[in-house]
């Protein structure tokens, strides 16, 4: 078996833009250079925003860019029930609680906006609730204090090879509390696993040895490493790369249709032009 397996894991909620192309090309090239494998995973657990048309366009764009993935494509929506086993394992260890807060409730309960944090840390309104009290429509959250209490003997570590955070990182409980908090693992109103858990489980399921993705996801790595450790799944090596920004220094978003690969394709650009534009 090869000792380098990586993946590109887009959410099909919009077109691929230059930032995604950078991530996919980097992962593909690193896999080929290591004589390893490059896998494709479609992260379509957001059933409202994910569209088959975007999935199809993503695959066309990747093929046009000359990126050929190995093996079958894993589509998360095709295996939703498989995540329940893992949620059940966490529930059996008393690590989940039901939550009925809306986004507006959470915002109102926060004393100050979490400036500079990529997501809102949950203030803990429903923390005292028990699983036996779960109502239809409740989300499920990880009880971070209890999770960390199980790991105190030796907080998990992970290796990062990306420039900005290169080195071995050990989970820092206070940082986990202030940056991440009690994340949602199963979404409100839909019995559907959330990104943090699904993505980490599938990295293990696909035997991913190297997770290559944008810098913006670095802060979430700790929670994924905590979840993998609690579930007795292997922790991959992580490589968080620089983000492609627009002329104003803003990170590209799905809405930046002007930078969509499909737009460049239609304008007659070549895959080599795209590589040049993103400095690869
Ligand atoms: N699906 C996520 C996204 O499109 C990427 C997840 C990951 O690479 O871990 O932003």
From TrEMBL:
Residues 6-277 form the Glutamyl/glutaminyl-tRNA synthetase class Ib catalytic domain. InterPro entries: aa-tRNA-synth_I_CS (IPR001412), Glu/Gln-tRNA-synth (IPR000924), Glu/Gln-tRNA-synth_Ib_cat-dom (IPR020058), GluQ/Sye (IPR049940), Rossmann-like_a/b/a_fold (IPR014729). Pfam families: tRNA-synt_1c. Keywords: Aminoacyl-tRNA synthetase, ATP-binding, Ligase, Metal-binding, Nucleotide-binding, Protein biosynthesis, Zinc. SUPFAM superfamilies: Nucleotidylyl transferase. The keyword Aminoacyl-tRNA synthetase applies. Belongs to the class-I aminoacyl-tRNA synthetase family. PANTHER family: GLUTAMATE--TRNA LIGASE, GLUTAMYL-Q TRNA(ASP) SYNTHETASE. This is tRNA glutamyl-Q synthetase. The gene is gltX/glnS.
